[in-house]
Amino acid sequence: MKIGSYRPVAAPANRLRLIVPPMFLLLAAVNTAPVIAATCPDTLVCNMEALSIIRDSTKAYSDCWGFAANGQEYAITGYRTGTIFTRVTDPRNPVEVGFITGPNSIWRDIKTFGTHAYIVTEGTGSGSGLQIVDISDPENPFLANTYNATFTTAHNLYIDTAAARCYVVGTGSGMHILDLSADPANPAWLGSWNNDYIHDLFVLNDTAYVSPIYSGTLKILDVSNPASISVLASHFYSGASNHNAWLLQDHRFLLTSDEANRGHVRCWDISDFKNITEVSKYQIPGFSFSAHNVLVKGTIAYIAYYANGLRLVDFADPYNPVEIGYYDTYPPYTSGTYAGNWGNYPFLPSGTLIASDQLFGIHLLRFKDFTGVAEGTTEMAGHPLRLVPGPNPFNPATMISFTLPGRNDVTLSIYAPSGRLVRNLLSGTLPGGDHSVRWNGLDDGGAAAASGVYFTRLTAGSASATAKLNLVR
Q1: Does an H or E element contain 314, and which?
Q2: What's residue 197's pLDDT?
Q3: Which of 137, 383, 411, 441 could serve as 405's disulfide partner, Cβ 3.0–4.6 Å?
Q4: CA 64 to CA 459: how far, in whole Å?
Q5: How far is CA 194 from CA 118, 169, 177, 301, 388, in A?
Q6: Per-residue pLDDT tens for 128-185?
Q7: Left if phi > 0, otherwise alpha if psi is -120 to 50, otherwise beta: which for 182?
Q8: SS3 of 439, please?
Q9: Mind listing the domains of the chain with CATH numbers?
């Protein structure tokens, strides 16, 4: 793989990092299938742009996370000997701002809560436990405390920010729940659950969707009382190697990833805990690689798929997932089930994506979605063609107003950020003058569109205009 010239990143002298200018890659068309979203196995990138790659020669990276503060954006990345903090506000020129030394390990997971970052690892020895890093000054992060009262090693963690609770799993003594509300740097232990080994989890509204990777199940727990946790559902399924879970935004559907040879990402209807049903699954055909971590933003699943890189799959229709983009962080290799893209973070306000690769470092990427179409107008007969939606934000409906300088063939449509057509509102010939069209928040099938950002596009002859909509349910 030709990666071009190198430029040093600001970093401590004993750990030189390099920015690798992203290589030029041919964009390929997206292939889709009704249940398993397929892709072209001979291509490396689709609808994605590499902004920069940060790596050194140690091949020592693990999971990643991110946060925004004081108008700046930051990536946090696990490293064999600690945790790297990098300013990525300008993703083409990232700057390392801190490094927190920790136990030596190839596993490291990070989450944030307010002005603190929380780090766990399976490494032992000096500094083992839950590291708590003060990021109130994000340019100068420092280790504020290490919690080791009830465990010293862990595989993963999840923070329910609404409840101010930290859930730590894979500890060897079960899942531990810590209270962050009173003093985030000095958590208080609330309880534990050790009926099964939990590899990872997602928590919302006192309900934990846990991944007991070795038991062949998907489990859902009531964690409202950490001292007395109960099982709400336990669903066995064939081929299970349940590594992680994440809810879709409507909370009716849950995604899980199977970390195994030819592992899937599965979509479950969990509306009835007594009748959990698999409705679709995503797998890259022709490879033995495993899915690893899946996170969800809006309707899009961001899947760290090891040697097949970062995959973006739209689950707006959970029964028919559609692959909309991918970027191969591990392009030279066609073997190695558990090598490649470890984790990703899609929640930065700017849209910059963070992806970590065990060998090839930190990748800063951008998805070339529908938001790449600039909001604005083109002129029609010397007059600007404008779209004015209102109210905006809206719930449940909005009026989209526009003015035509003369009679013309017109289309008015609603799109998801991925470019997926949600609703065709108008297609026909209209006279000149003022017009308004109502969108009631439904898609072409009559189903309610989920909360989130949408785009309305008007075309009139060769002119067009685009405006952003915010549906808040």
Answers
A1: strand 310-314
A2: 95
A3: 383
A4: 41
A5: 22, 10, 12, 30, 56
A6: 999 999 999 999 999 999 999 999 999 999 999 999 999 999 999 999 999 999 999 9
A7: alpha
A8: strand
A9: 7-368 (2.130.10.10), 372-471 (2.60.40.4070)
Three-class SS state of 213:
coil
Beta strands across the sheet bearing 109-113: 109-113, 116-120, 130-134, 142-147
User: Which residue type does 84 have?
Assistant: I
Interior/surface letters 96-130, b for 16+ CB within 10 angstroms, e for the rest: bbbbbebbebbbbbbbbbebbbbbbbbbeeebbbb
CB count, 10 Å around CB of 416?
23
Mean pLDDT of 189-215: 96
What is the structure's pLDDT at 386?
77
- Of 188-197, 236-245, 326-335, 358-367, least confident by mean pLDDT is 326-335
pLDDT above 70 for 41: no
pTM comes to: 0.77
Question: How far is Cα of residue 112 from the mean position of the Cα atoms in its chain?
Answer: 15
Count of beta carbons in the 10 Å neighbourhood of residue 207: 19
Question: Does the structure show a pLDDT above 80 at 207?
Answer: yes
Locate 179 and state its tokens.
């209270």
Three-state SS for 67?
Answer: strand
Give the span between the Cα atoms of 360 and 356, in whole angstroms: 8
- For the cut 90, the answer to whether the pLDDT of residue 250 exceeds it is no
Where are the extended beta strands (E) located within 150-276? 156-160, 165-169, 175-179, 188-193, 200-204, 207-211, 217-222, 230-236, 242-247, 253-258, 265-269
H-type alpha helices, 200-353:
none
* 321: Cβ contacts below 8 Å, ≥ 6 apart: 35, 37, 267, 280, 282, 301, 313, 314, 315
- Bridge partners, residue 413, by sequence: 424, 457
Give which of 295, 329, 216, 308 is closest to 262, Cα–Cα: 308
Q: Which two tokens stand for residue 268?
A: 């479950």
Q: Angle at CA 238, nearest 5°, toward 234 and 333?
A: 115
Q: How many CA atoms lie within 13 A of 122 on its CB side?
A: 12
The pLDDT value recorded for residue 299 is 84
Judged against a pLDDT cut of 80, whether residue 384 lies above it is answered with: no
Q: What mean pLDDT comes out for the span 394-402? A: 93
Calpha distance 459→383 (Å, rounded):
14
Contact 400, 456 (CB under 8 A): yes
Structural contact between residues 154 and 120, judged by C-beta atoms closer than 8 angstroms = yes
Residue with tokens 């729940």: 177
